[in-house]
Amino acid sequence: MGKLANLNITQKDFQNTINFLEENSIYHIDSSITGNEGEPYIFEKKGIKVAVLNYVTKDTNPNLLNDAKVRPNWFYLKKVEEDIAKLKDKVDYIIVYPHWGGRMEGAKLPDRELIPIAHKIIDAGADIIIGHHSHTIQPYEIYRGKYIFYSLGNFCFSDLIFENRQLYLDRRRNFEGLIISVQVSKNSISINPYKISIINNRIVPLNSIVKRSNLGKNPLINKLWTPYLFYEKKIYFIISSLTYIGKSPISQVKNIKLKKILHHLGLKKQRN
Questions:
Q1: Which of 84, 93, 97 is nearest to 188 (CA)?
Q2: 57 exposed, middle or buried (CB, 10 Å; 0-12, 13-18, 19+)?
Q3: What burial letters (b/e) apply to 68-104, b meaning 16+ CB within 10 Å?
Q4: How is the chain classified by DSSP, letter by letter?
Q5: Considering the entire predicted model, what is its pTM?
Q6: Which of the four pLDDT bands, split at 50, 70 and 90, describes residue 267?
Q7: What is the pLDDT of residues 66-88, one digit of tens each?
Q8: What is the C-alpha end-to-end distance of the chain, expressed in Å?
Q9: Which band of pLDDT confidence, cut at 50, 70 and 90, is reported for residue 263?
Q10: Domains detected in the chain
Q11: Mean pLDDT across the chain, nearest whole number?
Q12: CA distances from 195 to 152, 154, 198 (A)
């Protein structure tokens, strides 16, 4: 749920979503009220079997009411490695699709701690990692010949209305995403990322280059992580809040509350 993770999700909300997906023939994995949240999605086409594994990390703050019986498939590295080991001899390709990186929500780089974790998932036998949650496009890398996408950004998103208030999203970061085209054969896999933008609630393909980075050797990741983290979590929020594209700076100043700024600077705790 990203920035709306503090909303209380009920079992009814969850079931309504499941019903909608099933009515539209959309397969779903990861969370369940029947105890099968850990089951992979396996499909076969032209003799090629592909397994999709989905997990959610607790730092993305999924917030369920205490009486809700919804059970997410929590991300634990050891469990991911064990799940991959069970599938390696049964399928041709394994795609891991994690909802992760909550600490870097809204940021342009992934959480530094995710990089060695992603590498271990590939070492365990995954063929692709397609991550999401940050609502921003983050660089992808190729490790041991395998693609790791840390976050695809947003695909279909708009400004929000919550408790009768308009919540404006960051036009610079939250209105773009990636579509990943994956073609597989028995002996090879081909991956092409395509960048899209969300304009007037329509998906518009772009010709701009998708960033690839060797994140394990990126000096910003290794040497400048602490100041970058401070900038993203403390400073950028204030800058972006005052400079929303298409909105009057004066109106934005009116929407910014001192207690919210103090909270993001770590000077005041915010009440839920």
A1: 93
A2: buried
A3: bebbbbebeeeebeebbeebeeebbbbbbbbbbbbbb
A4: -GGGTTSPBPHHHHHHHHHHHHHTT----S-BSSS-TTPPEEEEETTEEEEEEEEE-GGG---B-TT---B--B--HHHHHHHHHHHTTT-SEEEEEEE--GGGTT-SS--TTHHHHHHHHHHHT-SEEE-B-SSSB--EEEETTEEEES-BB-SS---EEETTEEE---TTTTTEEEEEEEEE-SS-EEEEEEEEEEETTEEEE--SPPPB--GGG-HHHHTSHHHHHHIIIIIHHHHHHH--TTS-HHHHHHH--HHHHHHHTTSSPPP-
A5: 0.80
A6: low
A7: 666 788 899 999 999 999 999 99
A8: 16
A9: low
A10: 2-168 (3.60.21.10), 224-272 (no CATH)
A11: 81
A12: 9, 11, 10
Please give the structure tokens belonging to residue 246: 């298409």
Q: Which two tokens stand for residue 188?
A: 């090879």
> What's the rounded Cα separation, in Å, for the pair 224 and 228?
6
Tracing tokens 């609502």 back to the chain, one arrives at 135
Which two tokens mark 37? 């949240």
